[in-house]
Every structure is written in structure tokens, then in C-alpha cells.
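thread: overnight batch results

M.L. [08:02]
morning all. the overnight job finished for the chain we discussed friday. pasting input first so we're all looking at the same thing
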Amino acid sequence: MRHIYLVFGLASAALGIAGAFLPLVPTTPLLILAAWFFARSSPRLESWLLDHPRFGPLLRAWRTNGAIPRRAKLLACCGIAVGVVFFWIGARPGYWLWLTGAAILGGSAGYIISRPETKRGK
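M.L. [08:03]
and the structure it wrote out:
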């Protein structure tokens, strides 16, 4: 099972890092998932991810408090709003499909907003 966790951790980390450069690929959730898989398969890779200068503070804040920085919340919610609008304009879905998608994404935004915020300097 350890090897399966390692493969999923590596895949999640690769997609998460790619998401830092590609639009619509969620970086932080994939890195949180990678850290979870690495905790069960590779302490060395888990430590590398948690000590990473860019991603480590976000992952540690999530792990200890379930916290999301205010700037990340703002960017995530703006991205969700833009995604809903682009879906409406680009795909021209039926009203109920659009409304269903908007409700699901709105619920996701609500969850993001409801999370505690990280303290300054941490």
C-alpha cells in the first residue's frame, strides 16, 4: 500500500506544481493531497513539501488549523466567479445545468470563506 500512496503523492505533487503555472489547475488542494499521501509513504518527501519555501507555510497552516490566508481566499473566490462566467459564456449550458454548476461552485466558495485565516507572520 505504501508504494501506491507514493505514486499518488508524486502524481498529486506534480499536478499541484504544474497548477502554479497553469490556469484552472488547483495548486493548493493537490499539494494538500500530496502531503497526505507522503505522510503515509515517504517521510522524506513529506518533509520536503512541508519545508518548501513557497508551499510549506500554506500546507502547515492547513494541517495545524485548517487555515487559509485571506489573499488565497480572495484569489480562489475570484477564480471560481470567473470560472462560472466563462462556463456560461463559453459552453452556453442550459439554465439548470448552469445553475447546478454555479450552486456547487458557490458551495465551494462558501467552504473556502468559512475556513479560519492564518495569523500574520506565520
